[in-house]
Amino acid sequence: MYAMTSLRAQMLGIAFGFGAAAVLAATPAWSGASILIDADTGKVLRADNATYPWYPASTTKLMTLYMTLSAVRDNRITFDTLFTVSRNANMQAPTKMGLPVGTQVTVDNALKMMMVKSANDMAVLLAEGIGGSIDDFAQAMTETAHQLGMSESNFVNPNGLPADGQITSARDLAILARALIREFPDYSFYWHVPAIKFGRRIVRNYNPLLGRYPGADGMKTGFICASGFNLVATATRNNKHLIAVVLGAPSGAARAMKAAEMLESGFSQNPLSWLTPSLGLVDSLAPMDVAPPNLQEQTCGKHRRRPAAEDEDADADSDNTQAAAAASETRSLLLSALRAPTNPVLLSDLGPVMPVVVYTGPTRSPSQLATLSSDIAADPDKKKTKHHKTAARSNDDQAAPEKPANKKSVVAKPTDAKPTVKPADTKPTAQASASATPAAPKKQAKPKSPAAAAPGQ
Description:
This protein is of the alpha+beta class. Helix content is 29%, strand content 12%. The chain is built from 12 helices and 10 strands. The longest helix has 18 residues.
């Protein structure tokens, strides 16, 4: 592995894992990539290997979110548009909702499932519904990313599952997060939904900073063995909005502490800031023409007491014993680090959250949702179906590499019916923006990149 080379980190004496020694004590040394920027100005506050190519894992879904919100803004779809679960979507590796083929889901509900549970099947549902096929949607993702200035990014699927050519960098993800914040402020709810409730099942957001770090308001986690644990985190305090990107952390707890420490350093008034050289704007950082590192052994090697999993930060489903044990261990590690005498308290224990109800089928009114919830409470087995009980591995992206589908999946076209009642927590009118998402682009040859090795390879 390469070494950390940030001059700024050396001058300020800022080492990775500040406040996280207890978390990292049992893990091997590692070198990751990270960046901290001001969301309003684009100014780079800290950067370590920020332009080093990296496997994005499920941070890919931020690009899928951007494409979906752009389609809403351009009046090509609405949040009430129904898309149908195809066989291709149903066959995606966990983490996923596991909805049967033919199930219809609104764009609004698909986005919430994708962003909170990191559902790979919902990302494919949106890709096929908007772009017609995964190939065409991924082509549009890449072209749109380049228009945003994400020159190091290339996408071949909408969910981040291992595949040749699925590449990004910490710099590019910071640019993407900034674009979402600036272009879609009315829809920021989608990247900080605390939890969703589907039938009897409640799933908390995999982002460990939400509800734990003061001011945290987004965005997305990601994990495959080749990438390590990734996190794009945003927070706002005193009208200051920061974006932190952490790639390649050895565990979910480590990435949470790293991101919290970076954000805290950005919010703190540093009396020595005038001694440090300016790092410029995020768009001006020069890309690196190298292959992305493969963290397969470091992340998923035999030294792990249990398999690495994306949802080890979140409260796991009650019927998933292994995931629940991992979640408990991670919370213990976080609290141990927080309570160390030399550490500032950056994160607090996660308290109760108010889940947002998600469902299949057409948009429902608040009164219909209330009736649905009361029916489930009165008769828990009434809404209990086979796909509600899917005991997925819940490892977000951890699966064998899959190549994008070559054939276009058959999906239902958006319905013309427009429900009279919009979801209470989304706004039906998209905000105008100077930049528009391009129409379905022509196919072009995709760059060849080493495949992101999945666990077991």
